[in-house]
Amino acid sequence: MSALIDGTWVAVGRAADVPLWEGRRVTVDGRRVAIFRTEEGVHAVSADCPHAGGPLQDGLVADGCVTCPLHGWRFDLRSGARIGADDGALTRYEVVERDGELLLNLESAGGPASAGHMAGSGTPGA
Ligand code: FES
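Above: the input record for the complex with FE2/S2 (inorganic) cluster. Below: its predicted structure, written as tokens.
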């Protein structure tokens, strides 16, 4: 279930439902997004592996990366970049925790080239 917060941010579930080193998949506006928690916080990337559609939310999480459970492609969760290759990057999204909820910014969708550049949306309640 998802609920629109302010036109940009969408509530996609409880933060407690994404334990450390695990991923969960949500679907918002027809987009399948995998949300992960690492020691750095939460990360959101496209859920379908660009190789053959593997379920990245079920991948092994370590060192800030997720490994696809089907054939082992590895992705940096901070940037969406595929490790060891220039192609096959994931779309990444800005995600934050507020009052125990996960809020996703679909307008922030970007790849490695735009990582860290979340065009002017700001964070909810900031
Ligand atoms: S489907 Fe992910 S590595 Fe093949």
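Notes for the reader.
The first strand starts at residue 3 and ends at 4.
Residues 49, 51-54, 68, 70-73 surround FE2/S2 (inorganic) cluster (CB under 6 Å).
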